């Protein structure tokens, strides 16, 4: 399943990637972050839609040292149980515009009814700043030839570890999280909740089916030979979700990612009403469309041009650029 | 192009659809909305991601009358120019969690630095309540046969007016908004900004190409015969956007909707970095994929099963349900 940020973070720390070990000696005591002394150097990223902003700041200590920090501010969602109180206790309500039955106002609330979630990374290294920096994205049109000449050699050179996937399939990890399994080694799979989903509400339901068969890296490896596996995932996965969570198949979006985040075939199940990250047309491929295309032409995914976006800092982009293809 | 909510609203009003005319006599004076006297009856919809909530409320007047209202609360985005002030003037900053270099806090701000945009529809009719009510969505798998037997007869029975599209093509409206035109009656098109885009920043760039040729209702009507038209839209549209707005083709998402919102072929161009509404995999079809499929098989879009979502209140859903297909 897709790694949660927490897990990614842990791995990076183990591998010493974020440099936190090196800087631990000078680290201030937890809970000590001097917000009022922060100078904002740069907005790394902002999302008007999600009401969040990512800041690169610097703290000047009394001793003259400067320490970088990443500060993420995000307004929190409205909570149904607080609404009545919030409407009664406003400090001001100012008319902005009025037209017939429609009007808009500026509403001001007491601080405690309108908090902001703040996440701090402190001290932050250059790696952290890069991680949160808004990167330009580029659309890649990968032909079948491009896959063979650029993408496949790149994947093979990277030796991404997918031991954590094998641990799940071999019941060495996350055994108690498995929702359903078809144990067939060729056409079977396990279904489990994605780490992004807390299983507390169906609104953002998110599960992952991971196939037992090894060596199917992605969409690009699929042929008509895999139709039984795909059909099992679509049908049995949907039934298992209906049985366990009560959500009908007509309320599920079932798709693969290309590029995937790891190269062992897996399928995403998300609630149709949930605007899930990664379900946009330049990354997601509906499993039912994939099956239709394989029935039409077994070599469809070896021949077709696949379109996907790469961020400026992704190494695969450089490979495409060096080949004159991006 | 897709209608903006404002335009939709105007049309509904003209057609007397929302009943505002009937209720205008009892309408309170503008700017008079008694927020503190509002009883919240129901949450019509909420978006945790966008920090917005849609409420159905009722106002009890002194005379004992009850009047329905829709109240929409939405937190506003952070503004870069206010950030420094906001960090300095907080009223409280409380540690929630701390782990190594990572920590989270609850930040509380003075009311004036953290306003909430409030939109009121008052008095609201049943139509308004329905409009804002969160509707269940259902995934439809429309086979080629389903299209012929269910969808096409439905479209033809509805006689949706697309006079506004013809007005654009004939230069009777929006002439000054046209960004580019290829005037060929068979393989030409006009390109203009979508109403959702204010043209002030590239972040949410959104344009629409509308083909000159009439009678191509949607993706379902496309065959290899239309490849020249589609190629022109993809190439010339992309070039025109690069020339006018400076955004390269590799930073554009170019796609069709199925179902479309009106049945005259049009193509959406959005900034790749913009998480545009309607670009998710169950509605959007990349123009480059469409062209690949038509080259593979001229009848691809007459034969394939197309997947799309319908809301519970959409009449086409009833047609599929009555045919036992949803």
UniProtKB/TrEMBL annotation, chains A, B:
Alphabetical keyword list: Acetylation, Cytoplasm, Hydrolase, mRNA processing, mRNA splicing, Nucleus, Phosphoprotein
Main location: cytoplasm
Active site (UniProt): 266
Pfam families in the cross-refs: DcpS, DcpS_C
Disordered: annotated segments: 1-30
Top-level taxonomic group: Eukaryota
Any one GO BP annotation for this protein: deadenylation-dependent decapping of nuclear-transcribed mRNA
Reactions this protein catalyses: a 5'-end (N(7)-methyl 5'-triphosphoguanosine)-ribonucleoside in mRNA + H2O = N(7)-methyl-GMP + a 5'-end diphospho-ribonucleoside in mRNA + 2 H(+)
GO annotations of cellular component type: nucleus; P-body
Molecular-function GO terms, alphabetical: 5'-(N(7)-methyl 5'-triphosphoguanosine)-[mRNA] diphosphatase activity; RNA 7-methylguanosine cap binding
Residues holding substrate: 164, 174, 194, 196, 257-268
Xref: PROSITE patterns: HIT_1
Family: Belongs to the HIT family.
Protein purpose: Decapping scavenger enzyme that catalyzes the cleavage of a residual cap structure following the degradation of mRNAs by the 3'->5' exosome-mediated mRNA decay pathway.
Subunit comment: Homodimer. Associates with components of the exosome multienzyme ribonuclease complex, such as EXOSC3 and EXOSC4. Interacts with NDOR1.
Protein name: m7GpppX diphosphatase
Species this chain originates from: Python bivittatus
């Amino acid at each position: 399943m897709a790694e949660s940020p927490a897990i990614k973070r842990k791995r990076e720390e183990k591998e010493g990637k974020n440099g936190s070990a090196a800087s631990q000696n000078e680290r201030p005591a937890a809970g000590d972050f001097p917000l009022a002394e922060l100078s904002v150097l740069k907005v790394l990223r902002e999302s008007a839609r999600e009401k969040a902003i990512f800041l690169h700041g610097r703290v000047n200590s009394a001793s003259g040292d400067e320490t970088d920090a990443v500060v993420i501010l995000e307004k929190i969602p409205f909570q149904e149980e607080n609404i009545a109180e919030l409407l009664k206790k406003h400090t001001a309500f100012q008319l902005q515009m009025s037209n017939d039955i429609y009007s808009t106002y500026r509403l001001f609330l007491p601080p405690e009814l309108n908090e902001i979630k703040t996440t701090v990374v402190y001290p932050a290294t250059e790696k952290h700043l890069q991680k949160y920096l808004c990167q330009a994205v580029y659309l890649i049109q990968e032909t079948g030839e491009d896959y063979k000449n650029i993408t496949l050699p790149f994947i093979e050179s990277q030796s991404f570890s997918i031991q954590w996937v094998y641990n799940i399939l071999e019941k060495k990890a996350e055994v108690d999280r498995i929702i359903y399994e078809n144990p067939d080694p060729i056409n079977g799979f396990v279904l489990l909740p994605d780490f992004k989903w807390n299983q507390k509400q169906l609104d953002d339901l998110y599960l992952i089916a991971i196939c037992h068969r090894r060596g199917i890296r992605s969409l690009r490896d699929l042929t008509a030979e895999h139709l039984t596996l795909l059909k099992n995932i679509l049908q049995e996965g949907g039934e298992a979700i209906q049985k366990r969570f009560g959500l009908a198949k007509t309320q599920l979006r079932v798709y693969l990612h290309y590029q995937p985040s790891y190269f062992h075939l897996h399928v995403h199940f998300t609630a149709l009403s949930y605007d899930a990250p990664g379900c946009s047309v330049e990354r997601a491929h509906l499993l039912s469309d994939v099956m239709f295309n394989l029935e039409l032409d077994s070599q469809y995914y070896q021949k077709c041009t696949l379109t996907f976006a790469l961020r400026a800092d992704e190494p695969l982009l450089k490979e495409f650029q060096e080949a004159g293809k991006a």
